[in-house]
Write a structure and sequence with these properties.
- The chain is of the alpha+beta class and 101 residues long.
- The protein has a single domain, classed as Histidine-containing Protein, Chain: A (2-Layer Sandwich), CATH 3.30.1340.
- Strands 1-2-5-3-4 form a five-stranded antiparallel sheet.
- Helix 1 packs antiparallel against helix 3.
- It holds the Pfam family PTS-HPr.
- It comes from Pseudodesulfovibrio aespoeensis (strain ATCC 700646 / DSM 10631 / Aspo-2).
- It is found in: Cytoplasm.
- Keywords: Cytoplasm, Phosphotransferase system.
């Protein structure tokens, strides 16, 4: 499941958004969360991950782990800034590759 949206975020202006499904058998545990945070840190964009209304900083492994995302959960990747499109695409690829788990 992939969906691209351009939305308005109060206080942040435009952001890009894409929905992804957690396909890993054990969910977004420490190893994939670490890969997600590490990849996100390579971009200057403000990148957020959203699950059931809870929004966290994608660049923080601890924040990502607090989502406790399990198999089949639908997450939203949101990014704003100069390289937002590249950031969203790169993180979406991680999900499609199941974080090489």
């Amino acid at each position: 499941m992939t969906e691209t949206n351009q939305s308005m975020d109060e206080g942040q202006g435009d952001f890009l958004s894409r929905q992804v499904v957690v396909a890993n058998e054990h969910g977004l545990h420490a190893r994939p969360a670490g890969k997600l945070a590490q990849r996100a840190q390579g971009f200057s964009a403000n990148i957020r991950i959203v699950l059931d209304g809870q929004e966290v900083d994608a660049k923080s492994i601890l924040d990502v782990l607090t989502l406790a995302a399990g198999p089949g959960d639908v997450l939203e990747i949101r990014a704003s800034g100069d390289d937002a499109a590249q950031a969203v695409e790169a993180l979406e690829r991680l999900f499609h590759q199941r974080f090489s788990d």
